[in-house]
Design a protein that fits this description.
Layout lengths: L14 E2 L22 E2 H14 L6 E4 L11 E6 L5 E6 L7 H16 L10 H11 L2 E5 L4 H9 L24 E2 L5 E7 L15 E5 L21 E8 L5 E7 L21 H13 L4 E9 L1 E3 L8 H13 L9 E3 L1 H4 L7 H7 L11 E10 L14 H18 L11 H4 L16
Parallel strand pairs: 1-2, 5-6, 5-12, 8-10, 12-15, 13-14
Antiparallel strand pairs: 3-4, 4-6, 7-8, 8-9, 10-11, 13-15
Helix pairs in contact: 1-2, 2-9, 6-9
């Protein structure tokens, strides 16, 4: 069975981790809260790896990260390509409810492998040769579902579940070593540091910190993995602006120190840096194979290309974001916005993007990696669609993002022209991806 041609919107469906009696590219029975028919991510990745091996793509491997998740699922990484000195990473699904964030990195891998020329083909097209050059001159790592437990729970139980599913316990999490102090009768207290607390929240603070006083039995399952990486400003609460049920503007916790059952808990940064199985596994990937010269962590939603707070003055990273932004425009579609999280959404620290940017190559001539978070469709403020992007929009979202992903691979590790469109971006500007799906342009 070849990788299917996906030209029309109805050819695209969401993935789940796996389902009973699954097969490659085969849809499940109706499942979950929305009765979706889904593909098995595990089996589709296995098939892609086999196809890559058949085409003799160098260094092809599919492997699970270690440790496994709290519910014993594996975070799979598909690895393929030639040059070990130019490693590029595409990830998604670190938040359980963000379905489209799983699809785009998966579809990038499928696109590259499907369109890599077969060794038996003596006359590959010019576009096939470009794909071959990209793959052979890079090593590409794709991990589409970094939070399989959370994704499973969001599919079947709580549609808006964002975090992972590890049970927080007094024995392992709420200890003095993790900055919690034990009070009488087993209660704990913790004082969360603050970053630019809104004026209306300052009266809630004690000595400039937020105090959480709770019994460990009140803690909820889960940690926001995208707030759990070690690095700049870990453990600080941050705030964003939103609108309440009455239409009034309110501040909300964009990063929270609250481990108990509450709305704030969905952005809980965890009892310690790197406290979660998934975080440890992703960091181990960087230890074994990194640093990555370029990376994108896909999320939903808002149509934004975000770069790290610490990259504000990194002209190469800013320019690369602008180049990818230009490539998101297809026909009359509006471009994605680009900027730092604090410019476009809210301050957010200790994310995978931050960690990737921090893990820079060493040496006197080394430059910081191109590290981005891309918030996919729909646009910011479209709560009517929000995290439930219809399956019919998967194709449209993919075609907006595939050229930027190809450009990132081509530009990885390079200083780029800040005044004109860099060649590594410009070479994809004329790729006519409209109505092509996963088929290369002519």
């Amino acid at each position: 069975m070849p990788i299917p041609d996906r030209i029309n919107p109805e050819d695209y469906h969401y993935h789940v981790y796996d389902y009973d009696n699954s097969a490659p590219f085969a849809l499940s029975d109706a499942m979950g809260l929305h009765n979706l028919r889904c593909y098995s991510l595990v089996l589709d990745l296995i098939y892609l790896a086999g196809e890559a091996m058949d085409k003799k793509i160098p260094n092809t491997a599919l492997f699970p990260l270690v440790p496994y998740t709290a519910e014993n699922r594996k975070i799979y990484v598909l690895h393929f390509g030639g040059d070990p000195n130019r490693r590029v990473l595409f990830t998604g699904g670190i938040h359980g409810r963000e379905r489209i964030a799983v699809e785009i990195p998966y579809l990038i891998a499928e696109y590259l492998i499907k369109n890599y020329p077969d060794p038996a083909d003596e006359k590959p097209s010019a576009k096939q040769q470009e794909i071959k050059n990209l793959v052979d001159n890079s090593q590409i790592f794709v991990a589409p579902m970094l939070n399989p437990d959370g994704h499973n729970y969001a599919t079947k139980t709580d549609r808006m579940w964002r975090i992972n599913r590890r049970i927080l316990t007094a024995k392992n999490d709420f200890t003095e070593e993790n900055e919690f102090s034990k009070e009488q009768w087993g209660y704990c207290q913790y004082f969360a540091r603050q970053y630019k607390t809104p004026p209306e929240k300052k009266n809630d603070l004690i000595d400039g910190r937020n105090r959480y006083y709770f019994h460990p039995s009140q803690a909820s399952a889960g940690v926001d993995l995208n707030r759990n990486f070690p690095g700049y400003m870990w453990g600080y609460e941050t705030y964003g602006k939103g609108v309440d049920d009455k239409g009034e503007k309110v501040s909300f916790h964009a990063t929270s120190g609250d481990p108990t059952v509450s709305k704030r808990h969905e952005s809980y940064f965890g009892p310690a840096k790197n406290s979660e199985y998934e975080t440890k596994a992703i960091m181990d990937l960087f230890t074994r194979f990194g640093p990555f010269l370029a990376s994108i962590d896909y999320h939903s939603y808002s149509k934004m290309i975000l770069y790290p707070e610490l990259a504000k003055n990194d002209a190469n990273v800013v320019r690369m974001a602008q180049c990818m932004r230009e490539l998101t425009k297809i026909g009359k579609e509006s471009k994605y916005k680009c900027g730092r999280p604090s410019d476009l959404l809210y301050p957010g620290f200790s994310s995978l993007m931050d960690y990737s940017y921090k893990r820079a190559p060493t040496g006197p001539s080394a430059r910081k990696p191109y590290a981005f978070t891309i918030e996919l469709d729909p646009e910011y403020g479209n709560e009517a669609v929000g995290f439930d992007l219809p399956e019919g929009e998967i194709l449209n979202t993919f075609r907006k993002n595939i050229r930027g992903a190809l450009a990132l691979i081509a530009c990885a590790g390079k200083d780029i022209d800040r005044d004109r469109t860099p060649l590594c971006c410009g070479q994809f500007a004329d790729w006519q991806v409209f109505n092509r799906g996963n088929i290369l342009p002519d």
